[in-house]
């Protein structure tokens, strides 16, 4: 596998929640506590936001706080270093936590947006804010409500991000899928336009495994650093 990566000139990596779970970040289903009584659609949808923007912002505020209290794991950093070794490298992530950017990844498509970006519901203005939120809900300087700039249930993917992701999938010699499965629409959609090999990195086999050419079973925070070490060792020989 390490030798295969060394020979690849165009690589697409797709990451999902499993990659950030190793940083101690729980998925919605595993959020626990107070939020267990809510359905995801109540907290991550335009309808839920219109109904109770303060409740939605409280949830996102807690998620942001959890991210500030944790950090990218070795898998994030290994992917950032891998980017420097592949001439044409694209990272498409379903995660909104910003950990890939924090770890140093540059050519990245945050297909579901970023929890650190806010968007004005009136003017569409977008800005970044990494500081703890002091007042909830959050308002834009124009006086209108602001919302997290993330993809919610019932919304369509950003066209420019989709075009970039599809173009990367079409030209990639190899796609590596980590911490997610083929049941996720964005993964299955990108694999449909891909004509090369597919490698899966997951803790256990998924519905994607039968489509993949190879399954590397284990935590991505261990698999990617190990691959990087092997690549560097082979290169030095």
UniProtKB/TrEMBL annotation:
The keyword Transferase applies. InterPro entries: DHS-like_NAD/FAD-binding_dom, NAD-dep_sirtuin_deacylases, Sirtuin, Sirtuin_cat_small_dom_sf, Sirtuin_class_III, Ssirtuin_cat_dom. GO terms for cellular component: cytoplasm. Keywords: Cytoplasm, NAD, Transferase. One of its GO terms (molecular function) is NAD+ binding. It is found in: Cytoplasm. NAD-dependent lysine deacetylase and desuccinylase that specifically removes acetyl and succinyl groups on target proteins. Modulates the activities of several proteins which are inactive in their acylated form. This is NAD-dependent protein deacylase. The lineage of its organism: Bacteria, Candidatus Blackallbacteria. The gene is cobB.
């Amino acid at each position: 596998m390490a030798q295969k990566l060394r020979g690849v000139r165009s690589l697409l990596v797709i990451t999902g929640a499993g990659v950030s779970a190793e940083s101690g970040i729980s998925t919605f289903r595993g959020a626990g506590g107070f939020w267990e009584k809510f359905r995801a659609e109540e907290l991550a949808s335009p309808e839920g936001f219109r109904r109770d923007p303060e409740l939605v912002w409280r949830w996102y505020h807690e998620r942001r706080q959890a991210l500030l209290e944790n950090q990218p794991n070795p898998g994030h950093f290994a992917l950032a270093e891998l980017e420097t070794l592949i001439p044409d490298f694209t990272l498409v992530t379903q995660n909104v936590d910003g950990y890939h950017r924090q770890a140093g990844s540059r050519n990245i498509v945050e297909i579901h947006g970023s929890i650190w970006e806010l968007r004005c519901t009136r003017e569409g203005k977008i800005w970044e804010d990494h500081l703890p939120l002091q007042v909830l809900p959050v308002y834009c300087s124009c006086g209108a409500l602001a919302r997290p700039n993330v993809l919610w249930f019932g919304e369509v993917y950003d066209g420019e991000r989709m075009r970039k992701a599809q173009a990367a999938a079409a030209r990639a010699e190899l796609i590596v899928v980590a911490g997610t499965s083929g049941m996720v629409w964005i993964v299955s959609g990108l694999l449909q336009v891909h004509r090369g090999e597919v490698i899966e990195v997951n803790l256990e086999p998924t519905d994607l495994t039968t489509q993949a050419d190879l399954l590397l079973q284990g935590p991505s925070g261990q698999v990617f650093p190990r691959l990087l070490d092997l690549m560097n060792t082979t290169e030095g020989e």
